[in-house]
Amino acid sequence: MNFYKVIFYLFIFIFLYFHPSKSQILSDEECGCNTLNVNFLKNKPTDDQLHLLLDSVNFGENKTLYRIPVKFWIYRKSDGKDGFSEEKIKELLYWLNYYHSINNTGLSYYLKPDIRYIDNNRLVKLKYILQAPFQTAFHKSKACINVHIADKLKLKRRNHNSRNLSGTYNAITKGVIIVKGSSISTLTHEIGHYLGLKHPHRFWKSKLLGEPVSRTKEIRGTHIKMCEKKGDGLCDTPAEPNLSRFTDDNCKYTGWNVSDSYGVVYVPNTDNIMSYTKNRECRTQFTKEQIALMLYTASKNKYSKFWEVTDKNTIRFNFDTYEPDNSRNSSTELNFNIKQTHTFHEIFNSPRKETFKDSVDWLFIKCDTTKQSETKIIIAKSDAEFPAMRIRVYNSDGLIYQKEITEPEEIKINTPCKDVLYIQVINIMFENILGGYSIKLAE
Fold this sequence. Notes:
single chain, alpha/beta, Collagenase (Catalytic Domain), Jelly Rolls, 2 domains, six-stranded mixed β-sheet, five-stranded mixed β-sheet
């Protein structure tokens, strides 16, 4: 990083630390610097424009519009121990894609290799003000969303006790941080900030910037609705207080007497992914305008043409639902008579660098579920072209089976399985064929 960038981030640090309203700003807005961006509403599309955008992409057809790579940065102890496993990263990406899938956002996410590790005892428990902004500035990769995973993220405020946060997004460095053990919805929430979303309770205590409950109340002397210019700037997200204070563990709203600046009682939803419900597992939903704003933000990203599935070259980046599975630690379980469809694909790196090649899949079979001495694996065609592949099978002793195939085939493995069988599928014609296949464990 050059000298000028260092000075810039130092200035940001000084501003955050000594700004007189810091404590008020951070009291309900723990996702960091995005809170300070009051002017984002000036550049945000209007409600009508957001709905026109959804119409233009035929919202409701359940199709993918953008495939976005995610880069993970894992903080570990200096000896390289106690990091976040590849299995857990696979789980994070599963839930991220799950929430976007059930909301039909048109956005999907895949792993950008390789996973990077930062081994430093002093950084596994990140300090929100003193360390987090600098780490997300120094450790970042282009053309993707950078996600940092630490043991803890500690916020220390003047005249306040320290508190541990579950995640944050820094709008200046464009970095996401989540902590180990946080809710399964936390990563989706923070990436929502990356894609332009704010908290529905944003500035809820402010008479000037707080959003009124009324969806039709206009700014005095104009015909502009307040819900478009205050709070999160979206009219289909009901105004709300900080729900961490006014919901119970069963997602029930308890702030029956809490009202906005005009004396109108709040009637919020308790399932919005961008809210702060006490039980974070309540959060499952995006609204239509939130979806439209995320799509709009993705379209304005400098790398959007490499994420859009309409681009003629993006078919190369068509990943399957079992990704990531390019290592034994991130392998996918293969169950009886349940067909899985896998693809070999490329992973966008950056416009000036060679793309990564996803040419290896790993699967595993739990031996106690086979209940037979012979294991049969059926490899068949999928919609994609069938490539030449090398199949390898391992047990706890090592490699027990290997074969190259150029067409669909049933593979029989007679070697006893002691605990788990691992299957490695390698595309040996990747330079010429991307392709794909289906695989099933048969009786």
